[in-house]
Amino acid sequence: MLLGQQTIRNLVLTATMGGLGAQGVKGYGIGKGGLFGHSLVVAQSAQVVSKETNCSIPAEAYTAGLLHDIGKVVLSQYAAN
What we know:
By secondary structure, this protein is mainly alpha-helical. Helix content is 64%, strand content 0%.
């Protein structure tokens, strides 16, 4: 109750995403943890912009920012070949 449903949702989603791309995304030349770090910065930035502009729901903007490069994990397997 103290943190709120949206904060808990963001924490769980972030923790779940932490393992993806942990070994790096070789097909894109992204090192260990680089994809997650980038996605986290984009997610936080999207949330701040959403709050400042009142154009969208901040929790949805956070989720979109966190997931925006998820396809690179899959496509990297083909790009590395």
